[in-house]
Q: What sequence folds into this?
């Protein structure tokens, strides 16, 4: 650009409404009369739509989850889910046999987090599936682990794109339109028979900063894992905090409605940044609430609750056509789940509404006893998640 030239000016205007209304607007206006809004696109994204980045400095003071968890990757892509993934082990083995004409290796069958609250099995043959993501997924196969699953970007108007897992995940686990990354909490050694212990997948500089701000000492493994909540911070555990506490702190922050609304523009375009805790008390409170969310979303000890998603009528149990009427979720002409709160039916986790998607994905199938109970647990989890999120906002 020469010295005598100025940068181009960019203007924006949104025109919503029916086709006739748009035609009428265009006929009665010109480029000079449209109420344009001048944009000032900034590096590095250069958005051509209005964005409010006035909180950029405040948001950037937090730490990025991608910086905190150095080892991470997009989830598994099989390219043939209908063959490699199934909720039934016998059906999965049969699919592999029929498709490849081989005798399947049953040791390659592992649990996989397929969609929210939809856990299935994957035939994890790294030579046959398209993207195995072994560098990350092996840390769930080699021992107990948990991880955060988060999308880097979303085209949706809202951000709810974080879920916890204790198993390998698919690329579309959180959102059907955008890949999601898995951030495991622990890393296991390549040689499972060595004396080497698992290590936290955490950046040391961020851990050090959190320790300085809270006065709590970091420990890679708790010597007394039964200590939880307030006991852990009261001195009985030596004022330590552990990797799982930090993960739960992050999980609580990312589920706080005020945080999601305040930083919504930034959450749409990159992995989230999490504010550092101000002190030990704040860290303890959020970690405790995050621990409750973790347990709910992993369905640890969650049982159906009487009066919620009851399944009172007898019938074929086949999912034919779904209809939500009042508090009833009808699956066919005679059977329904009764007492399903609207906040649970409409609840989003990432780009999915689990109360609806879990049933839609099973259309044409007959629900067994365990399926019915699992769906009842899903409804309870969604309702209690909403309650915990409200508590976080306080």
A:
């Amino acid at each position: 650009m020469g010295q005598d030239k100025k940068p181009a000016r960019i203007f924006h205007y949104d025109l919503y409404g029916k086709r006739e209304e748009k035609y009428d607007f265009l006929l009665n206006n010109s480029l000079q009369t449209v109420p344009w809004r001048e944009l000032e696109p900034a590096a590095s994204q250069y958005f051509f739509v209005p964005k409010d980045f006035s909180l950029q400095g405040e948001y950037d003071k937090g730490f990025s989850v991608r910086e905190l968890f150095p080892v991470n990757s997009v989830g598994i892509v099989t390219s043939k889910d209908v063959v490699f993934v199934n909720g039934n082990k016998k059906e999965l083995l049969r699919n592999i046999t029929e498709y490849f004409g081989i005798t399947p290796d049953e040791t390659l069958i592992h649990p996989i987090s397929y969609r929210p609250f939809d856990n299935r099995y994957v035939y994890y043959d790294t030579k046959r599936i398209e993207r195995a993501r072994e560098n990350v997924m092996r840390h769930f196969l080699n021992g107990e682990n948990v991880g955060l699953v988060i999308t880097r970007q979303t085209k949706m108007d809202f951000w709810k794109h974080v879920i916890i897992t204790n198993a390998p995940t698919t690329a579309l686990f959180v959102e059907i339109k955008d890949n999601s990354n898995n951030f495991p909490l622990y890393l296991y050694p390549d040689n499972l028979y060595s004396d080497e212990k698992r290590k936290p997948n955490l950046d040391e500089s961020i851990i050090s900063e959190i320790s300085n701000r809270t006065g709590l000492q970091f420990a890679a493994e708790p010597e007394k894992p039964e200590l939880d909540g307030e006991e852990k911070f009261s001195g009985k555990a030596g004022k330590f905090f552990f990797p799982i506490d930090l993960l739960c702190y992050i999980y609580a922050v990312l589920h706080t409605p005020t945080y999601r609304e305040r930083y919504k523009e930034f959450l749409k375009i990159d992995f989230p940044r999490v504010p550092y805790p101000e002190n030990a008390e704040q860290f303890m409170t959020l970690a405790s609430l995050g621990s409750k969310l973790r347990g709910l979303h992993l369905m640890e000890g969650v049982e159906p609750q009487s009066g919620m998603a009851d399944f009172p009528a007898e019938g074929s149990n086949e999912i034919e056509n779904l209809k939500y009427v009042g508090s009833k979720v009808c699956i066919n002409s005679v059977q329904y789940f009764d007492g399903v709160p609207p906040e649970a039916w409409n609840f989003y986790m990432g780009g999915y509404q689990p109360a609806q998607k879990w049933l839609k994905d099973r259309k044409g199938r007959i629900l067994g006893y365990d399926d019915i109970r699992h769906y009842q647990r899903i409804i309870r989890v969604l309702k209690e998640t909403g309650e915990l999120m409200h508590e976080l906002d306080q």
Q: What stands out?
A: The two ends are 52 Å apart (CA to CA). The chain has a mean pLDDT of 90.
